[in-house]
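Researcher: Sequence recovery benchmark, item below. Answer with residues only.
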């Protein structure tokens, strides 16, 4: 497998995992939670490094997941105190991220851990850090981790598809049917945390946020059916990864930034051209109704 192919495959795995999870974030009106968790995992990574003095492995993963779950808990707690949900997310995300930045500046020292790496990732280095898996052989460690993450995300989406659907559209109905809404909420936040953490080191916070929100928002414009929305969102994530890589190679710039930019271009196309909620189709339907109204009056 070539150097470029590993980068594209790894980014595509990020696009798939984040695309699937992002659909439920959009439906639950929790898009900003993606931004919050993608930044607050930095605090978990820094604390894990301060405790273990290692920049990779299980401690980093565990620390980041705990930080993500802590973010979800604090947001839910503040919201229960009658603070608006988006305000709660903003308070928690900025505070925990700021603590992480302060710890990097004052306590981490000369370790290769900085805010630039946290925001933009190191996707160009992915093919060099490899592991050997049975039956598969030698592959990049980030690719293996993201492949496992995608499997976990798909497993829980399929296993609890009915529960995710009901709790996303009508939590009150879900509670009346005996579905544990709060448990499903924290399970979902756990999936968001795992997906964010797995993607964080490879592509950075900017692309994680872009892939969690933009492909799902684009898919939302094309269909009202959840199953189709999931497929479209994952597909848009993969297309953004592939197109972004070639844009970066063309103009010699950040790969992660270009992938986020490509996802934005897809959203613009969807916003304009979607036959269901697109601006042009909405305008045509509105004009057709006006013409029909004038014809009937005449």
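Model:
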């Amino acid at each position: 497998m070539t150097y470029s192919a590993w980068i594209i495959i790894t980014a595509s795995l990020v696009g798939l995992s984040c695309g699937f999870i992002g659909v439920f974030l959009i439906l639950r009106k929790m898009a900003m939670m993606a931004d919050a968790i993608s930044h607050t995992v930095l605090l978990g990574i820094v604390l894990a490094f301060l405790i273990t003095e290692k920049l990779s492995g299980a401690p980093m993963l565990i620390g980041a997941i705990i930080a993500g779950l802590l973010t979800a808990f604090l947001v839910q707690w503040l919201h229960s105190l009658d603070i608006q949900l988006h305000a709660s997310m903003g308070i928690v995300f900025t505070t925990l991220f700021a603590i992480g930045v302060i710890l990097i500046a004052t306590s981490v020292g000369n370790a290769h851990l900085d805010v630039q790496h946290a925001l933009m990732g190191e996707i160009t280095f992915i093919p060099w850090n490899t592991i050997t898996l049975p039956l598969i052989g030698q592959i990049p460690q980030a690719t293996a981790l993201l492949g496992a993450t995608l499997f976990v995300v798909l497993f829980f989406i399929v296993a609890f598809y009915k529960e995710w659907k009901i709790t996303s559209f009508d939590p009150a109905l879900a509670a009346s049917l005996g579905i544990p809404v709060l448990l499903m909420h924290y399970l979902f936040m756990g999936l968001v945390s795992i997906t964010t953490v797995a993607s964080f080191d490879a592509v950075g916070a900017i692309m994680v946020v872009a892939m969690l929100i933009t492909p799902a928002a684009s898919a939302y414009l094309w269909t009202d059916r959840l199953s189709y929305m999931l497929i479209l969102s994952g597909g848009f994530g993969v297309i953004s990864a592939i197109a972004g890589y070639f844009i970066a190679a063309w103009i010699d710039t950040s790969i992660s930034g270009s992938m986020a930019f490509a996802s934005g271009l897809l959203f613009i196309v969807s916003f304009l051209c979607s036959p269901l909620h697109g601006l042009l189709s909405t305008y045509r339907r509105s004009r057709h109704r006006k013409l029909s109204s004038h014809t009937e009056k005449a």
